[in-house]
Amino acid sequence: MKQVYLAFGSNLGSPVQNIRKALAALPDAGVEVRRVSSFYRTEPVELIHQPWFVNCVAETATNLMPLQLLKAVQRVERALGRRKVVDKGPRTIDIDILLYENVVVQSNTLKIPHEGLSHRRFVLAPLSELERNLRHPVTQRTVLEMLGALSDHSQVIRMDAESETPLKGQVEHAASAAANMREPS
Prior knowledge:
There is one protein chain. The chain is built from 5 helices and 9 strands. The chain is of the alpha+beta class. It starts with a strand and ends in a 5-residue tail after the last helix. The chain has one domain: 7,8-Dihydro-6-hydroxymethylpterin-pyrophosphokinase HPPK (Alpha-Beta Plaits, 2-Layer Sandwich), CATH 3.30.70.560. The longest helix has 14 residues, at about 65-80. Helices cover about 25% and strands about 30% of the residues. Strands 1, 2, 3, 4, 5, 8 and 9 form a 7-stranded antiparallel beta sheet that branches. Strands 6-7 form a two-stranded antiparallel sheet. The chain is globular and about 35 Å long. β6 (about 105) and β7 form a beta hairpin.
């Protein structure tokens, strides 16, 4: 099976429940969920006038090829009510393929690694929780190195999974993230 990292985001309805439903639907789509990061409440970054998101990252495994995987996650999104009305706008669920082993795919329909991977705090913070030393297959930078180099100052706040509320002291800002997530010496 191929190791794949998927990013999840939602800011409509019940975002935590939407993500949990998406995670639960993956096995029927041919994707085994191995580990899931904490959930994070995240500030919108490109289209800022919309509700905050909930995001997480999952380490998964699949026998599907990259384009088959894309179609499988798109079916899960549609089944959960995803309708693309506004680019970067509100959504019930968004599932992105971040990494697929060390494979690089550059096509009109799919780009792996995900083109936003190296400059999105809302992706790198949860990914660093799962595998901080994972390397970008093109730049060879680790998740931790990419996180430390970010110019993205958006808020990424780890949530308490049970109460679905932000945890005190868990705001990840650009200046503090690199210091807080540095590799142990």
